[in-house]
Design brief:
With 477 residues, this protein is of the alpha/beta class. The protein has helices at 2-17, 24-35, 64-74, 82-94, 99-105, 137-142, 163-173, 186-189, 195-201, 271-279, 294-299, 328-335, 358-362, 389-410, 432-439, 449-460, 464-476, and strands at 43-46, 75-79, 106-108, 126-130, 178-184, 205-213, 225-232, 241-248, 254-261, 287-290, 292-293, 301-315, 318-326, 339-342, 354-357, 366-369, 379-384, 416-417, 428-429.
C-alpha cells in the first residue's frame, strides 16, 4: 500500500511539472550523429535540462585536456527543479568539470517565465536541444496543482495548447536559429491542439528531419513523441515544407518516408486525406448531428419504449442498458438513424475507428447520453435529410473502406495518435470534423441503383482508384 501511495505522489509530482526525463540512449542514437561535427561551432543549451542527458554526453567526444574549456564556452544547462540541477552538476563533475565551473553554467531557472537573454552574449551561436515540459491546456485547467501554468497561455500566447508550444514559441521570439526538440507527435499529427501553433511556428522554421516513435519512450506516460530538427528560415514565409521522416515502430521496425506539410492544411501531416475530403465533397451533402442527449429525451417524453445504451455508464466491459420512454416524433428519429461512430480504435483490428450499426454492436436502437458528451464514447449519428436503412448501410461500407484506404496509404497519419498501448497496432483517434467531412463526400443524391451496385463492387474488390474515378464522375454529373 505504501508503494502505491508513493507512486501516486511521484506521478502527481511529474505531472505538476510536465516532466518526462529523456533517456541518454535517445541522445546517443538519434541526436548526437546529427551534431557531432558541429560541437565547437555552437553554444549548446538546454533550458529544460532535467538530468542533463541531452547535452552532457557530448563531453565524451571531447578530449580530457579540452573538456573544461569546452564546457565553459559551449554548455549551459537550466532547470526549474533544484534537485535536477544538482544531478546535472554531479554528472558534469564526473566528466572532470570542476565544481565551481559546473555551478556557473548549470543553474536553476524558470525559462517558461522568461528567456535567459544573457545567453545572447555567448561567443558562439546558440543551439537549443531540449525535452521541454509537456502538459496540455485541458489538463492544466482541471488540476489545482497545474493551474499556475494558465498564465503562460494568455496575451500573445492565447490559442496555444501545450507547455511545449510555449517553450518553442519563446525560442522563436528570441531568434534561436537551431533547435532539436523532443515533443509529442501531436505537433505533426494533431488537429485543433496544434493547428495554430504550427501555422505560427513553421512560418519561421523549416524542418530538416523528424524521428517519430510509435513505441513507448517514457516510462510514466502514454504520450507518443517525435524528435524534430528545426532550422530558422532566412525570411518568414508560409510555404510547403519537405523533409525526411524516420518512423520507429513496434518490434523496432523502421520506416522512412518523405513528408510534405502544406500551409493550406495547417501543416498537418497526412494532409492527402484532407485533400481528398476537399476535392470530393459533393454539392448537396448529407447533414449530420451527433448525440442523443438527455435534454432531448426529457423534452419528448411519451409512451413508446426504446432500448438504448447509456454512453456515460460503462461497467464490466459493457455499456449499461436503459429503456427510454419517448413520443412518436423522437421514436421515429431514433429508429430511422441506425449508425454510430466509434472515434477511437479499441486496439483490435475489428474495433477500428469508423461507422458501425447500433443494433449489431449493442443490440439496442439508440445511444443515450445521460451526462456530459465525450468524443471518445460511441456517438449516434442523425442524418438530414433522412435516408433509407439500406443507404445508411452503404454509407457505412463506403466510409470504413475509404478510412482503410488512407490508413494503408498514409500509415494512419491523417488520424491522431490516441495514446501508447500494448495493442497490436498504434491506436488512433478519428475527429468528429473528419467524420462529418467524409460523410459529405458520399454522393447519395447523385447515385442511382446501377451506380450503387458499382460502388459496392468497387469496394468489395478493393479497387480504390475505380472508386475515386466513380466519385469524380458522380460529382461532375
Amino acid at each position: 500500500m505504501g508503494n502505491k501511495s508513493q507512486d501516486l505522489k511521484d506521478n502527481q509530482y511529474r505531472r505538476s511539472f510536465g516532466v518526462h526525463l529523456t533517456s541518454r540512449k535517445i541522445f546517443i542514437k538519434c541526436i548526437f550523429p546529427e551534431i557531432q561535427i558541429k560541437l565547437w561551432n555552437y553554444t549548446w543549451i538546454d533550458l529544460y535540462a532535467g538530468e542533463g542527458d541531452l547535452i552532457l554526453p557530448v563531453l565524451e567526444s571531447i578530449s580530457p585536456d579540452n573538456r573544461i574549456q569546452f564546457f565553459k564556452d559551449h554548455i549551459y544547462l537550466y532547470d526549474i527543479q533544484p534537485e535536477m540541477v544538482q544531478k546535472c552538476i554531479i554528472k558534469a563533475e564526473n566528466y572532470g568539470i570542476p565544481s565551481g565551473i559546473a555551478k556557473n553554467n548549470i543553474q536553476s531557472r524558470n525559462n517558461l517565465e522568461s528567456f535567459p537573454n544573457f545567453l545572447n552574449n555567448s561567443r558562439f551561436p546558440l543551439f537549443h536541444i531540449t525535452n521541454p515540459p509537456y502538459l496540455y491546456l485541458g489538463y492544466i485547467r482541471k488540476h489545482r496543482e497545474t493551474q499556475k501554468y494558465l498564465k503562460f497561455f494568455k496575451g500573445k500566447n492565447d490559442g496555444y495548447q501545450d507547455l511545449y508550444q510555449i517553450a518553442m514559441i519563446n525560442d522563436l521570439r528570441n531568434d534561436i536559429k537551431n533547435l532539436i526538440y523532443i515533443i509529442p507527435s501531436n505537433f505533426l499529427f494533431g488537429s485543433s491542439i496544434s493547428n495554430k501553433f504550427r501555422l505560427d511556428f513553421l512560418k519561421h522554421y523549416k524542418i530538416n528531419k523528424v524521428v517519430i516513435f510509435e513505441t513507448q519512450i517514457f516510462e510514466h506516460t502514454g504520450t507518443n513523441i517525435c524528435i524534430g530538427f528545426f532550422q530558422r528560415k532566412d525570411n518568414p514565409k508560409s510555404e510547403d515544407l519537405e523533409f525526411k521522416g524516420i518512423k520507429i515502430k513496434k518490434q523496432n521496425k523502421i520506416v522512412e518516408k518523405n513528408y510534405i506539410l502544406k500551409p493550406e492544411f495547417k501543416y498537418r501531416a497526412g494532409s492527402e486525406f484532407e485533400e481528398f475530403l476537399k476535392e470530393y465533397r459533393v454539392k448537396n451533402p448529407l447533414n449530420i448531428k451527433y448525440y442523443l442527449l438527455k435534454k432531448e429525451v426529457m423534452k419528448h417524453k411519451g409512451v413508446n419504449k426504446i432500448d438504448a445504451i447509456d454512453a456515460n455508464m460503462y461497467q464490466n466491459n459493457e455499456y449499461y442498458k436503459v429503456i427510454l420512454q419517448i413520443n412518436d416524433k423522437l421514436k421515429k428519429k431514433i429508429c430511422s438513424n441506425i449508425l454510430y461512430v466509434r472515434t477511437v480504435d479499441t486496439g483490435s483490428y475489428n474495433g477500428r475507428a469508423g461507422l458501425g450499426i447500433i443494433s449489431e454492436d449493442f443490440n439496442v436502437k439508440g445511444i443515450y447520453v445521460s451526462g456530459n458528451t465525450y468524443r471518445t464514447h460511441p456517438i449516434q449519428i442523425f442524418i438530414e435529410p433522412p435516408i433509407s436503412h439500406s443507404d445508411q448501410i452503404l454509407l457505412k461500407i463506403y466510409f470504413n473502406y475509404v478510412m482503410e484506404v488512407f490508413r494503408e496509404k498514409l500509415d494512419s497519419e491523417f488520424l491522431t495518435t490516441y495514446k501508447y498501448s500494448n495493442a497490436e497496432y498504434t491506436r488512433k483517434y478519428l475527429g468528429l470534423t473528419q467524420v462529418r467531412k467524409l460523410i459529405e463526400t458520399f454522393p447519395i443524391f447523385k447515385i442511382d441503383v446501377e451506380n450503387k451496385k458499382n460502388l459496392r463492387e468497387l469496394i468489395e474488390s478493393k479497387n480504390d482508384q475505380g472508386l475515386f474515378k466513380l466519385l469524380k464522375k458522380l460529382k461532375n454529373s
